[in-house]
Amino acid sequence: MRNLFTIAAKDTRIMVRDRAALLVMLAMPLGLIFILGSALGNVGEGDSLDAEVAIVNLDSGDTGERFVDGLTSAEEIDAVFNIHVRDDADKVRTEVERGDLTAALIIPKDLTDRITRGEPAPLEVLQDPGSAVIAGVWAAVVRAGVAQASAQIVAGHTLAEAFAAPLSAGPPSGADASNALPGASHGSPGETQELELDAVRVSELDVELEKEISMISFYAAAMSGMFLLFGGMFGAFSFVRERREQTLARMMSTPSSTAVIVGGKALGVMLIGVLQFLVLLAGTRLLFQVDWGSDVLAVVLVGFAEVLSAAGLAMALAALGKTERAIGGIAPAFIMLFAALGGAMIPAEQLPSWLLPVQVLSPVYWTVESFLELMRGGALADVLPNIGAVTAIGVVLLGFGVWRVRYE
Amino acid sequence: MSSIVEVRALTKRFDELVAVNDVSFSIEEGEVFGLLGPNGAGKTTTISMVSCLIEPTSGTIVVNGHDSAREPGALKAALGVVPQEIALYPTLTAAENLRFWGSMYGLRGDALKSAVADALELAGLADRAKERVEKYSGGMKRRINIAAGILHKPRVLLMDEPTVGIDPQSRNHILETVKDLNAAGMTVLYTSHYMEEVEYLCDRIAIMDHGVIIAEGTLNELRDVVGGMDVVAVKVAGVTSEVLERVRAIEGVEGVESVEDALEVLTRSSGSIMGRLVSTLESEGAHVTSVSVTEPNLESVFLHLTGKSLRD
């Protein structure tokens, strides 16, 4: 039994001296995380973004139209938001819920009438759950605009009462709205907020808001999920090389049982995978400030489960490929397929619907989903089923490998 | 003396191919037992079955009282194996390799440290213990390959062609190492297709061909197979297959082997065939530079039994 650890320690020592393996297992994922994360930007955390927002003006009078003009004509607002003026409120609501739009403002059809009658006029601000920060800025812009308009309406009412003249409320100034941003009040994620002014009330869509994940964080999760499986490829190389160079036969001629030898080889892959994962974890944290979430234990357990999958993949590949060359052809294809299905290349929800049922076969899918969940603030309990799924896939792969692998 | 290795009716089939066919032999404790035969004779398959690497189709193997089918673990613990390939990890140092293989045989702590130091000393590589094996010459790798097999001081050492592809100096070192190990009481099963090695090392020898043992005994007993025969060694250039056929046809010639620029002719009447042999060669255009008569060796035995050379 002790030889299990002897074999694992020997394999780890050999792998640590293999520069090509280290390049693939550590340098490549860190490089890709940096390149992809930088190229695709820090969604939700950047300073200047063309956030897609929409305004639906259902107001039959001219107050709504002037409000829209005020928002769309301000340069400061235009620098941050790409504003679309739309007609269909339901469609816009759906697009916000789906994440196609970051936020939206829906102006009710009786805004002018209510203001004329001196009644509260609720505006509806919708926020994408996945873009809390930008959507919050949009809500603040609307609030500032409302505050401006409200002040003018109150002034208008006062003048009307004094001079019995008709109401005249000017549109909010974009510049003023923008200047009002720093002091604007922000609603807490997930809560419905109402802001009562003299004449206009703003309510936010009551949606579950999640912590935004930057692209570099997304790719840290995705590339870690994918590249941990490359440990499996190198594990398979090691097994086949030992078979070719007769060191495996020599091990089999020692008193150690086959189970101990295979277990030692698998444990070696896992040990190397754990080291790889810890380096990726620390590397992404220190180099790219990736926030893996507050539940460190859960993050580590997810990584360990993926490492078990890598060990299973190693044995399965060693069973399928007779030579290192054959495995060098098969392994990247398997890993890329797992990665593509698992959402490590593009978000999993963007895959065609007919592919979704096979996603569950990919350990990368469960791993990346778990990492992202933990980055959004999830805890161990939220990812336990995923950890179970990755472990099950690893056990199945390991079982297949042990069943089919040749030792001679 | 008692048998420490007992092999009975050992057979191994790979589909239609019978690699080892009904092989039996026993090795006494303290003996060096040689398995001699050309490549493909079944030596490695036999040694692989003895070391429990492959399962026999039929037959029994008992080492140090342990049956391979019932107690493979105990049997393997009594064995040291030196495979034909250099079964080492090239990116580990010699000391790291030896520590690993010693651990695999259950050595730990000071016992392991001492065994590694002894093995390095035996290999003559103590001063290069911290170098990676990939930087070693072929001969040095072979020596560490042997050292890895004897770390745990096994009762029986299996050596499968341990001198293949190395320089004469390393070869001599290995042969002397085997002698020393045997002198220290280790039983050795040694396979080779080099008859000089087997003649030099082995107390008893089994000659294998096509998966069967065709002769077995001490060197003298085997020489008796060709008892009364001489080997006429002719240094000659320009020998063709036609010339060989003409020599074989000479009356009194029992066998002919061509080795580079020489012919070895097995005969019971060296005196009477010498003249005809030289005249036949000269008449066929071959140029004879010297002729000598020697005692028969294992090569002669193999030639006599199979009609072909060990090197064929």
Reconstruct the topology from this structure.
The complex is a heterodimer of chains A (408) and B (312).
Chain A: H1 2-16, H2 19-39, E1 51-57, H3 63-73, H4 75-80, E2 81-86, H5 89-98, E3 103-107, H6 111-117, E4 121-127, H7 132-163, H8 174-179, E5 194-196, E6 200-204, H9 215-244, H10 247-252, H11 258-288, H12 296-320, H13 324-341, H14 356-359, H15 363-375, H16 380-404
Parallel strand pairs in A: 1-2, 1-3, 4-6
Antiparallel strand pairs in A: 3-4, 5-6
Chain B: E1 3-14, E2 17-28, E3 32-36, H1 43-50, E4 58-63, E5 66-67, H2 72-77, E6 79-82, H3 94-104, H4 109-123, H5 138-150, E7 156-160, H6 168-183, E8 187-192, H7 195-201, E9 204-209, E10 212-217, H8 219-225, E11 230-237, H9 241-248, E12 253-259, E13 262-267, H10 270-283, E14 287-294, H11 298-306
Parallel strand pairs in B: 3-8, 3-9, 6-7, 7-8
Antiparallel strand pairs in B: 1-2, 1-4, 4-5, 9-10, 11-13, 11-14, 12-13
Helix pairs in contact in B: 3-4, 3-5, 4-5, 5-6, 8-11
Average pLDDT, all residues of chain A: 82
Largest sheet of chain B: 6 strands, mixed
Radius of gyration of chain B from CA coordinates: 22 Å
Report how far apart the termini of chain A are: 22 Å
Q: Strands of the largest sheet of chain A, in order across it? A: 2-1-3-4-6-5
| Extended strand count of chain A | 6
Biggest sheet of chain A, in brief?
A: 6 strands, mixed
CATH superfamily of the largest domain in chain B: P-loop containing nucleotide triphosphate hydrolases
- Unreliable stretches of chain A (pLDDT < 50, length at least 5) are 42-48, 165-199, 205-209
Shape of chain B: globular
Binned, the helix content of chain B reads 25-40%
Calculate the mean pLDDT score of chain B and round it.
91
Radius of gyration over C-alpha positions of chain A, nearest whole angstrom: 29 Å
| Uncertain regions spanning at least 5 consecutive residues of chain B | none
CATH T-level fold name of the largest domain in chain B: Rossmann fold
What separation lies between the terminal Cα atoms of chain B? 37 Å
User: Which percent band covers the strand fraction of chain A?
Assistant: 5-15%
What class, by secondary structure content of chain A? alpha/beta
Quaternary state, please? heterodimer
Count of separate structural domains of chain B? 2
Helix-and-strand structural type of chain B: alpha/beta
